[in-house]
Amino acid sequence: MRWLLIKDLQILRRSPLLVGLLVVYPIAVALMIGFALSSPPGKPKVAFYNEVAPGQGTIRIGSQRLNVAGYASDLLRSIQPIRVHSQAAAIAAVRDGQALAAVVIPSDLPQQIESLVTQGFGSPTVQLYLNTRDPLERQYVDQVIQSRINQVEQDVSKQVLHVAVSDLQEVLNGGTVQILGQNVPLLGLRNARTIIAGTIASLPAASPLRVALRQVVSFADLAIQGLGFAKPVLGSIGTPLTVDETQLAGATTPTDAYAAAIAVIVSLMFVTMLLAAGMLALERSENAYGRLIRGLITPGRLLWEKIILAGGCATAVTLVMAAFMSLFVHLDWGRFELWVAALALGGVAFGALGVAIGAVAREVSAASLMAFLVSLPIAFVALVPASAVSGTVKVVLDVIAFLFPFKPALEAASNAFSATAPGIGLPLLHLALLAAAFASLAAVAMRRFTAR
Amino acid sequence: MSTAADEGNGPARPSARPSTRPPAPPLAVRSLTKRFGARAALQSVSFELESGELVGIIGPNGAGKTTLLSILAGVVAPDEGEVTVAGRDAGWVPQQPALYSKLSVTENLRLFARLEKVADPDAAVARMLAQTGLEDRAQDEVSQLSGGNQQRVNIAIGLLSEPALLLLDEPSAALDPRQRERLWEFISALGTTVVFSTHDVGEVERYANRVLLLADGELLFTGTPAQLERAVGGDPRDLEAALVAFLHQRGH
Question: What global pTM score does this model have?
């Protein structure tokens, strides 16, 4: 056994490519998983404009004043704010890509909150403008901003509740309330009860009791008022703020269509790459390559035959898959020709990558393994929302995703599946360029098929 | 290079089959040179073949036999020199059967007949099946054939376009003696000019009209096997002993 071990180690030592792959691949995967799990999500860049004039952010609830404008600053905790000085500037910052989103606090927000809390009607609304690249990124930005808004809502609600409880205590126990600048004694339910009880005890129905009875009547009026606003107060405690979301640019594909596109493109990638890599390597494994390129077919045509074969098969498979998924998820059949275009060109690009792998690996089993190993990180890198990682990592991920077909194929497919999404021209152009690049790479690598 | 063209014929060998001599030799090679990195696989190799010859390329491992055949076949480009093949391209039969193992014998033959743009692919397939004696295995997958039969199909594909010259790279390398014997009977009966490489000097002695002896990329000798035996002097036991002695004398 010792000698076998030594022999195997010698073989490994003389197989630097295999050893390199065995070392580098798990490290790369571990790093990616590590980044995904441990890196604190980066704060999205958000343009922020507060229209509430200084000093105008205070509302009156019951007997207390509440500075709601102060809570707006809480929104800034989870974002990288780009402070702007108008709503137009905020929208412009989103449109030109400086910011993923813009939050605009309208000038009447305090009044709307006060109206909602004290009268039960009003619609305090925060404006949110988005320019996200895919539904995952949109979901991420949404979550970040929504969680801050929820926090603000909780803080406001807590204050409102405090006011409501305080007023109810006064109603119960009595105190003083300012009316027209004068302190007016508030009897309280308990005192009223005592008074009424005393009054009943000393009943002679003559006039000396009138003053006390007037106090009871006043208290009853106040109690009615207090309970009158307590109802909307308590009703608005949950979610007083509304977020009005507008997608200015970027992907507007619904999340379910995007999820369907991910499933379809992952399948397209695996089928195409494994088939293209394996079928090209098979020509060499079967020793047929040398015979074929002796004037029967050029290496370039052989490459494209494999690309078309793999891409065509995978396109057919994934079209059926998409049709099946449309039974459960809304995919827009009106754009079927875009489905075909996205999947076909995606298949061609993945096929070109597959033949490049097949040309490098040269053996069927090695080509299949390599195609599989390459596929996973490509998908992983493309699916990490760029806004979820820090700046440098984001740039690296963007560059890697740009160099492989997964991201543009996913963009093309998700746009094709949704009527609300933009066109697929750019991703198709991207895929075509990648297909040409990988096919060229494969042609260079294939020269080694005949090398000794 | 030693040339023994004027030294007369030795013991009886299978002679070059008489045929109408074409105006140009079926193959002419001039100053062929090929390097792989710093290593010279072929150094200024020149020779010509006559129609109907059965020529064996022999030499030690790494002599350049496969490289020479690959260049003659057009699979590898030479660094210098030129190869002239009369008529259509040479038929090429690589060392390992270049066949699709999941296709049947007929499917393989038909595929390559179509790729060769043979006028009547079905007729060519039928002709090759008859020539290889594999009619009864025509529908079998190639992977189910013996090594000898796979090599027959391999050679048949090289013959589909009816080339004037057939190039065989170690055609009997993986075959047992019986299969080898049957293969050489098949090749000898083809009537085509054949160039083959081999490590089996006995095959050359029995079947070749002419020997090309390569060592370290140089063509050291061309002539009949008998001429090679005489070239070393003394009384070599057989062609193999003569080959070893010849190489030793030339410092290889």
Answer: 0.68
